[in-house]
Amino acid sequence: SGSGQPLNAAFDLFGRRWAILVVWELRSGTKTLPELKAEMGDASSSVLATRLKELTAAHIVRNQDGQYSLTTVGKGLLVALAPLHLWAKAWSASVR
User: Cα(61)–Cα(4) distance, rounded to whole angstroms?
Assistant: First the structure.
């Protein structure tokens, strides 16, 4: 983010297409790019590869020999997302 504000930088990173879903899909453990692609259907391999590079550069994801997993920082993000996940489930049920 050009503002220098950490929250703006996080919103910029996670607002990119598929970025937050990559993190969410890695919550269950290590996956390869083809495994992520299979779980994320509509995402192109090139976009996923770009997001994985960005998330790796941001220290959210690590890549060890083509195996992607969350770093400690990435796991902390999951903790932060847990209340939002609960809210989203309740919200989704309320608008049906």
Answer: 22
Token representation of residue 96: 């049906």
Cα(75)–Cα(87) distance, integer angstroms: 19
Longest dimension (CA), the chain: 43
What lies within 8 Å, CB to CB, of 69 at 6+ separation is 26, 29, 30, 31, 61, 62
- Residue in the structure block whose two tokens are 């453990």: 29
pLDDT tens digits, one per residue of 27-72: 999 999 999 999 998 899 999 999 999 999 999 999 999 999 999 9
Q: What is the reported pTM?
A: 0.89
